[in-house]
Design brief:
The protein has 1 helix and 12 strands. It is α+β, with helices and mostly antiparallel strands.
């Protein structure tokens, strides 16, 4: 691994560690002493994407998991993520899990879940790139129904990863 890629990975790890810690605090303190809500079911969670963020040779796309019913439920683990073309056909292999420890995240009014999809930034020599995907097919953790998220993405350098869902305040 070259020096610049190693620095980029280190620069990415600190913010992710902070988000994980905040997610743990948000999910555990809100339900301390109470029984956490049951796992989310298909139809209870809506997935959307934030603005792609290039930096340090990486392109990151935040995914947001929001409640769609008003009832609290919980997510635990990694979403399944694949890049797809305009016809819904998968472009290349699905995103690989990044190895971070998942936490139980309560999806409730005012609290959303977030996961980050990453790839090498093709503009900085990130290696061979796939065709630009029209969007992402996302399976929230533990659920069986995928959702299409329209976000153009070019997977480059053979790097396509996803982190676990963590808690964030709703925006």
């Amino acid at each position: 691994m070259n020096r610049y890629r190693r620095l980029a990975l280190h620069a990415l790890c600190l913010p992710i560690a902070v988000l994980l810690a905040l997610g743990y605090v948000a999910t555990t303190s809100a339900w301390a002493g109470a029984r956490p809500p049951s796992p989310c079911r298909d139809g209870q969670v809506t997935v959307s994407a934030g603005r792609p963020d290039p930096g340090a040779g990486q392109l990151s796309v935040p995914l947001r998991f929001s409640g769609s019913t008003g009832a609290a439920c919980s997510l635990y683990g990694y979403p399944g993520v694949s890049a797809v073309d305009a016809h819904g056909r998968q472009v290349g292999a699905p995103a690989q899990r990044n190895g971070q420890q998942p936490v139980n995240v309560v999806i409730a009014p005012g609290v959303t879940g977030a996961a980050t999809v990453t790839t090498a930034d093709g503009t900085t020599g990130g290696g061979r790139c796939r065709p630009v995907a029209a969007g992402l097919r996302v399976y929230p953790p533990g659920l069986h129904r995928s959702q299409y998220v329209p976000v153009p993405l070019r997977v480059c350098g053979g790097e396509f990863g996803v982190g676990p869902v963590t808690a964030t305040p709703a925006r």
